[in-house]
Design goal:
By secondary structure, the protein is mainly α. The chain has helices spanning 10-16, 24-35, 37-52, 55-64, 66-69, 71-88, 93-107, 113-134, 141-157, 167-181, 186-199, 210-219, 223-229, 236-254. It has one domain (20-256). The protein is built from 14 helices and no strands. α2 (24-35) crosses α9 (141-157), α8 crosses α10 and α12 (210-219) packs across α14.
């Protein structure tokens, strides 16, 4: 159990003294809920766009219609299922129910193991890189290792084969997969447009004109990603301004009091589909005719 920190860096030092090979759930839970909640949420949202730029993934997501016709609900369901695993843990009944629900959805489509593994890599590499660039402090090595171990465990429950062993290997996988597979796909662009439109409604983006919020969000994406999605690269001054604004935010957060109450995704104003509450077993989609995909069967009831 983590102590209530007195100084701004006390929790960092406490986490650094933990073993990321055995305490990775507790460490990652502290990172996502206490140390970098806003940053990790933004980075995970940005990770979604990277998956759309892989044609096989973008095409499938467009064909389901979920991300274009029910964008808010699909966004909410994805976040809430992953949040249930993190909050409750892999062995808790609610955590296992969330993994089972996720696997039931994935089992309904013919998804290649390589694509599943790439998506897992985006969950590791994108937040690590975001926090190291725009967080109020960089990750420690213990935190990087714990992040990779957390997603290795998640990927194992999903039946993904060939999961990278380290955070460095996750980053290398992401870069090499994107170099080989990034490319324009109309379906991926349609899903990206729908997600981008939704993101402009999230606080604090909603306070600016939609066109301004949209340009700001695009300015956070690298040119390789923008090119694959068919977006115009924002002018250099706009990209510099977006970078400066996030660095200024980090400087402010660095001087703020230590967060003692963990961030709650269900209570976030960005989650809007379930004002009366929800059961994780009822989230997501329920396609009628499931087909096996290439992820394999691990024998775990929570895995595909």
């Amino acid at each position: 159990m983590l102590r209530t920190p007195a100084g701004r860096y006390d929790r960092r030092d406490e986490l650094a003294a933990m073993d990321p090979e055995t305490s990775y759930v507790e460490i990652y839970r502290a990172l996502a809920g206490l140390e970098f909640p806003w940053d990790i949420q933004q980075a995970l949202s940005l990770a979604l766009f990277r998956t759309y730029a892989v044609p096989s993934i973008g095409r499938l997501l467009a064909e389901t219609g979920e991300f274009t016709r029910r964008t808010q609900k699909r966004y909410d369901d994805t976040g809430l299922i992953l949040d249930a695993v993190l909050v409750h843990g892999f062995e808790h009944v609610e955590g296992r129910a969330a993994i089972r629900r996720m696997n039931q959805m994935h089992r309904s489509y013919d998804i290649a193991n390589d694509d599943m593994r790439y998506v897992l890599a985006t969950f590791v590499a994108t937040p690590l890189r975001w926090v190291d660039r725009w967080g109020w402090r960089p990750h420690t090595e213990v935190e990087r290792v714990a992040t990779a171990n957390y997603y290795r465990q998640l990927g194992g429950h999903m039946g993904i084969r060939g999961i990278p062993a380290t955070w460095q290997e996750f980053c290398e996988l992401l870069d090499s997969y994107e170099a080989r597979h990034f490319g324009y796909e109309p379906g991926g662009r349609a899903v990206a447009d729908a997600t981008l439109d939704l993101a402009t409604t999230f606080p604090p983006n909603h306070r600016a004109p939609k066109a301004v919020s949209r340009e700001f969000l695009l300015a956070l994406m690298d040119e390789h990603l923008l090119d694959a999605l068919g977006y115009r690269v924002p002018p250099r001054p706009v990209r510099a301004l977006a970078d400066a604004m996030l660095r200024a935010r980090a400087a402010v957060v660095r001087r703020m009091p230590v967060r003692t109450e963990p961030f709650s995704l269900p209570a976030s104003p960005s989650i809007r589909s379930y004002p009366e509450g929800y059961d994780v077993r009822e989230l997501g989609t329920f396609p009628a005719c499931p087909v096996r995909h290439g992820g394999g069967d691990t024998g775990d009831e929570t895995a595909v």
